[in-house]
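Page 47, continued from p. 46.
Same chain as before, 182 aa.
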Amino acid sequence: MIDRDDHDPVDLVRYPYRHPVIIIYNKLEQPSRPPSAGGGGQVIKLVFSWKNHPDKSAEECDEHYRRVHTELAREAFRGVEGFGGLVYNRVTDAWVNDFNQPARVQAEPIADAWVELYFQDRATLEAAFQRPNMHVLFDDHPNFMAVDGPSNIRVYEVEELAFAGTRPAAGTTEPGPASGDR
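Result:
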């Protein structure tokens, strides 16, 4: 775990299947736990996905997101009552199974990265996105994502059901309590 200040730790998590993830939790309030974490009632989960900037390598896009955009996001959501957390996911490999057969077929991913945002309720979500500093996040998007086309960011409100096992604890590959349990 890397503490950048007393309020916003950033955990760099490497799951057993090689997907690097950054988890940002607001320590000023107790974070709402994702339903899959085994507690705390329902929360609203949004997923934003995108493709890399076409003129930059995946490594350049990832480096910019980790170095710059995470700091902008941390600041944008700082002090938002009911904000549970933000999780960054980067695609490292992609394949498909054709015609319901288990054979692995390499494929171009439909997204290169996505983030998961957790909010206590709809009012919290709506208030967060009305904050005047949200434009700073969109102003930074051309530095790491493809922005010159329709639907450059796909947004999904999802219902999550964890039905087996537990997620690894932050900073480890061992199952444990949810990353939000601090």
